[in-house]
Amino acid sequence: MSLTPTKADKSILIIISKSAYQSPTIKEALDIALTCAAFEQVISVLLTDNSVLALLPNQSPLAIGQKAINKQLAALPMYDIESLYIESHAESHVTPHQSVIPNSLIYVDDKEIADLIRSHDIVLRF
User: Fold this and answer.
1) Helix (H, G, I), strand (E, B), or coil: what is residue 38?
2) What is this structure's pTM?
3) DSSP strands (E only) in the chain
4) Is 94:86 a contact under the CB 8 Å cutoff?
5) Coil, helix or strand at residue 111
């Protein structure tokens, strides 16, 4: 498996670690990802820590006055964002068959995360 982006002038890795509904951070990060993808940049998203829980279906964000982040995550492949990386130790929280986008998840360990960071031109952390 190659972790190196292949097509655009700039490759962007967006690292998200915050919980989906703790703050608007994850929504802002996904908005940036979708905007960059619209301009044909190569976008990779890495979910770490509590952000991986946003991949679970059947969330009820309306109860706290927010929109479902998992629907926005599920839309990433439609914007040609097909590199969705997950910390490998997060598999105990979210397995591919539990995720809203089961075929797009790539589990990576710490060494692969370091390789991802090195292989991208721009890294944004949220």
Assistant:
1) helix
2) 0.79
3) 11-16, 42-47, 83-87, 105-108, 122-125
4) yes
5) helix
pLDDT at 35: 93
pLDDT tens digits for range 61-86:
655 566 778 778 888 888 889 889 99
Dihedral over Cα of 7, 81, 99, 103: its sign:
negative
3 state SS of 105: strand
Residue 109 backbone zone (phi > 0: left; psi -120 to 50: alpha; other: beta): beta
19, with CB counted inside 10 A (0-12, 13-18, 19+), is: middle
The whole-angstrom separation of Cα 73 and Cα 102 is: 11
Residue 44 CB partners (closer than 8 Å, separation 6+):
5, 11, 12, 13, 14, 81, 83, 84, 85, 116, 120
For the stretch 84-111, what's the b/e string if a residue is b when 16 or more beta carbons lie within 10 angstroms of its beta carbon? bbbbeebeeebeeeebbbeebbbebeee
